[in-house]
Amino acid sequence: MENIYSPAVDEQARNTARAAQKLGNEVKKDFDDAVSRGKAAAQGLGFDTQKVADRAREYVESTRKNVGKAAARVTTYADDNTALVAVAAFGIGLLVGHLVTRES
Question: Is 93 a member of any domain?
Answer without folding.
Answer: no
